[in-house]
Design brief:
globular, Rossmann fold, about 40% helix, 14 strands, binds N,N-dimethyl-L-histidine, nine-stranded mixed β-sheet
């Protein structure tokens, strides 16, 4: 154990700013039509063979699984944006409210630095933070990293219009391609928001933090957004929204297999099954096949036979305990300097300093 600050100060954000931020974010989303229509392709490898290999590996396994990275083709990314807007999906708006309320405090603590954001997407929430840096220092440097060039361009245009003092240097890349630039941009703060960490399994998380720690310089910062909700009812609701976007998200993965791998799956027979597993502190999302189904993988001319009622794991979404995360991050030489939460303790934003 590397030690570190085991009892960092926790700041709970009041609810007044929360409502203001919800309104501000709703106003922002009204300008997103072109991006939403175009959609976002986070994987965008254009490499169906890589997809086919991954699918075959998961379907060969027992129990069967699919890599959640492939949920985000253009259609899936559009659906995910809709999930974020649903009243049940508390993550996006709660994190936005926290950032709006504590942006200035964060900017004061870090000083004037470059912000690098992994999986930046529309950069809407980050705008709240960049605004604080501009207010304090007159300008800000921002490198959004995303696999989709179109979404980066759109975010750059939006920021140029709303925050002209932000110098935006986008990087069209996977996370892997971004690690080498951390050092060039030091002093920097890495943003990893939205509780995206929760979609990584234990081994992936370990690998991620080893790389982040190896590439950030001493004195650099990381701003980490984590879902810390413990209430099973609100968690279950967030992943089973009444409007049906969560189900559409799961089904789209199989529609993508039909489009790219010629899989011939009857997607209307797929039931979206998502429930909080308290013991593992994670939501597990499955596609349940209500009828027997043959899944064809055209590039390999292979067929997988599924029985009626069989389930495939499509995603996990871990929920975090701060008392476990602080020492976990200390093992990678990150000191938790400050923790910001909402008053309902559903979401936390951690300001970490690389030792
Ligand atoms: C991107 N990620 C943090 C989302 C989550 O909450 O785990 C993905 C998601 N899957 C279904 N709904 C949302």
């Amino acid at each position: 154990m590397a030690g570190g600050n085991r009892n960092p100060p926790v700041v709970a954000v009041g609810t007044a700013s929360y409502h203001e931020t919800v309104a501000a974010m709703a106003a922002c989303s009204a300008h997103r039509t072109s991006y939403a229509l175009e959609g976002r392709d986070r994987t965008a490898t254009g490499d169906s063979l890589e997809f086919a290999h991954s699918v075959a590996r998961g379907l060969d396994d027992s129990p069967r699984w699919l890599d959640c990275r492939y949920l985000y083709d253009a259609a899936g990314s559009h659906i995910f944006e809709r999930i974020c807007e649903q009243p049940e999906y508390y993550l996006t708006r709660t994190e936005g409210a926290i950032l709006a309320a504590v942006g200035l405090d964060i900017a004061l603590r870090t000083g004037s630095i470059t912000l690098i954001e992994l999986g930046s997407g529309s950069s809407i929430k980050t705008g709240l933070l960049l605004d604080a840096y501009c207010e304090l220092y007159g300008n800000a440097c921002y490198t959004p990293v995303d696999i989709s060039s179109s979404i980066l361009e759109h975010a750059r245009e939006e920021l140029a219009a709303s925050l002209p003092d932000v110098q935006v240097a986008p990087l069209n890349s996977t996370y892997d391609g971004a690690f080498p630039i951390f050092r060039e941009h030091s002093p920097a703060m890495l943003l990893f928001l939205g509780s995206t960490l929760g979609n990584l399994n234990e081994a992936e998380s370990l690998d991620f933090w080893e790389r982040v720690a190896a590439n950030l310089s001493s004195g650099d910062y990381c701003l980490l957004g984590l879902d810390i909700n413990e209430d099973a009812a609100t968690i279950d609701a967030a992943y089973n929204d009444a409007a049906g976007w969560s189900e559409a998200f799961t089904r789209n993965l199989f529609a993508r297999m039909n489009r790219e791998l010629g899989s011939a799956i009857a997607t209307d027979a797929i039931q979206h099954v998502a429930a909080f597993n308290r013991e593992c502190s994670r939501v597990e999302i499955y596609a349940r096949f209500q009828r027997a189904q043959s899944i064809y993988i055209e590039p390999f001319d292979r067929v997988f036979e599924l029985e009626a009622g069989e389930q495939i794991l499509t995603e996990i979404s871990c929920k975090f305990r701060l008392e476990e995360m602080v020492p976990y991050l200390a093992d990678f030489d990150f000191i938790t300097e400050q923790i910001y939460t909402d008053s309902d303790k559903r979401f936390a934003v951690l300001l970490l300093e690389r030792r």
